[in-house]
Amino acid sequence: MEKVTRIGGMGKHDTDDEPFPPQPDDTSSPNEMEGLTLYEGKKCLLINREIDNNGMGRYQWYIWGLCGFGYMLDLLWAQAFGLVLGPLEQELGFPPSQSGNISVAFSSGLTAGAFIWGVLVDIVGRQWAFNLTCLISATFGLALGGCNSYTAFLIVTAFVGFGIGGNIPIDTTICLEFIPQNRRFLLALLSIFQPIGVVICSAIAYGFIPNYSCNPNFSTADPAPSCFNVPAGTACCTKKSNMGWRYLMFTLGAITLGVFILRFVVFRFKESPKFLVYRGHDDKAVATLEAIAKVNKRQCGVSLADFEALTGEHNSTTSGTELLGSGAKQLHTSFKEKISIELSRYKLLFNNAQTSRLTVLVWLTYICDFWGFTLAGTYLPRILAQKNGAISLSLKFTYKTYLAIYTPGIIAVVLGTMVRTLLIILRHVMQGQLNIILRRSGCALKTSLFPARIQSVPQVGRKWTMVISSGLMGLSIFIFATVNTEASNIGLNVMEYFFQSMFNAVLYGWTPEVFPAPIRGTACGVASFWGRLFGIIAPLTAQSLLPASNNSAALTAGYTKVLCLAGGITLGCVLTVSLLPNKALGRQSM
C-alpha cells in the first residue's frame, strides 16, 4: 500500500497525482482503513458503508427529490425576472439602460446567499440551512407581487436572491452525503429540476402575462407609456391593466412556500451524520443513521460502540482534521479558536500546486458560466419579444415559444448525466478486455501500467462534454445576434438553452466530487460566490450598452452588443475547462 502522510488534515499521495487522496470504495479489502490516521476519516468510512448498505431507499429518494426542488427554485426565479422585464419596464417606466438593475439585485442576493449559506452549512449544519433558504425565498417572493415602485421591487428581489442563493451548494452537499456511492450519477441528474423549473415558470407566465398586459404591449413598436412618465389623464399602462407579472410573482411565491412546507413539515430532514461526526457528536450521528434505516425498513449496521472503538485505537487518538477542530476536541475549544479553525478550511483549497490549479480553474469556469447565462436569462426573453414584434409575431406567440425553447433542456440534463454513466461502463469494458487480452497472450506485463488511463475515462468524458457544450452555447448566441426569422429565433434559443443545461448538469455534479466533506459546502459555496459576483457585474456591463430611450433602432443595436458580450464570455468556459486536469473521480467522498 502506498505511504500516506497527513497534510492539512487530509491524506496526500507521495506522487502528488491527485488533488485529494483516493478514497477506497466498497469493493476494497477489510484493511481499507489502514493508513487513515484520522479517526473522523475512519468514521466516515463506516458512515459510507452504512449509506451504501441502505441503497436508494425511501429516505434517499425523499432527500433527492427535496434537493431537486431546491434546484428547481433556483432557475424558477431566475427565469421569472427575465420574463417580467418587459411588462415591468412598461408599467414602472424605467429606461432600458436601467433594465440590468433587476438582475444586479437578484445576483447580489444570490452572491450573498451562496457565500453565507455555503459557509454556514459547514458551521451550523445542513438541517437549518436546508429549510431557512426556502422560507426566506417564499416570504419575499410573495411580497414581490405587491411592489409598486422600481426601488421596492429591486430591494425585495435582492432578498429573494439571498434565500435562493444557498440552494445549489446546500443541496449538492446534502445529496452527496446521503446517496450511495453507486448512485452518484443522481447528483448530476439533480440539474434536471432546473429546466423543469424554467418550463413551469414559462408556462405560468404564458397563462398570465399575454392576457393581463397593457395594450399596446411592450413588444410592439409603439407601446403604451408608463403612467409615471406622462401627465395625469393621459392614456398609459396602469397597474390594473398590467397584473400579469404580479400574478406570476404570487404564484411562484406560493410554490416556494409549498417546497418549504414539504421540507419542514411533511418530511423532517435529519442532520448529516458526517457533519455530526466532524463536530464531535458521534451519538447524534448514530441516531441519524438509525433513523434513516428505520425509514428504509431495515436494521442499522453501525452502532456507537463502533465509533468508540475507533476513537480508542492508538493510531487514531490524534486527529489531523485540523480545519474542523479535531472532531470531539472541538467541543472544548474557545470561540476565538473556533473562528480560526473555520477560516483555516480555506487553506485546504490551496494546500499544493494541484489543488490550487483545480480551485482557480473551477472559479474561472463558474465566473464565465454565470456571466453568460445571467445575461442570457436576463435579456434573451426580452430580446426575443422585441425581435418577434419586429416581424409581427404576437406577444402570446412569443410566450408560447418559451415552452418550446426551454423544454428540451430537460433532455439535455439527462444526456449530460448519461455521458458519465456510459463512459463508466466503457471503462469497465476496457478494463475487462485488457485483462482478457493479457491472460490469453500470456504476457507478463503488469496491468497496473494501464488503469490510470482507463480510470480517467469518465473524467475526460465529462471534461470534453463541458468543453463542447459551452462552445456550442456561445456559438448559438453569436448567430442569434445576426439573424431574425421565426425559425431561427426558436431554433437558436433552443440550442443555447439545451447546451447551457447540459453544461451546468455536468458542472454542478462534478464540482462537489473533487472536494472532501469537511470543506465540500465551503468549496461549492465559494465557487458559486464567484459566479454570482460576476453575475452582478454582467448586467451592469450589458445595460451600459443599451440606450436611455425605447427607440427601436437603438434598442436593436444595443441588444446585438449584449448578445455578443454574452457569447464571448461564455466561450471562456471552453478555455478554462480545457485546462482542468484529467483525473479519475467517483471514489468515496468523505
From TrEMBL:
What are the Basic and acidic residues biased-composition ranges?
1-15
Membrane-related topology note = Multi-pass membrane protein
Signal sequence range: none
Q: Which residues form the Major facilitator superfamily (MFS) profile domain?
A: 63-584
InterPro entries in UniProt: MFS, MFS_dom, MFS_trans_sf, Sugar_transporter_CS
Q: Name one GO molecular function term.
A: transmembrane transporter activity
Which residues does the annotated region (Disordered) include?
A: 1-32
| Transmembrane intervals | 61-82, 102-121, 128-146, 152-174, 186-209, 247-266, 360-381, 401-426, 464-484, 490-510, 522-546, 558-580
* A Pfam family: MFS_1
State the name under which the record lists this protein.
Major facilitator superfamily (MFS) profile domain-containing protein
Q: Name the lineage.
A: Eukaryota, Fungi, Dikarya, Ascomycota, Pezizomycotina
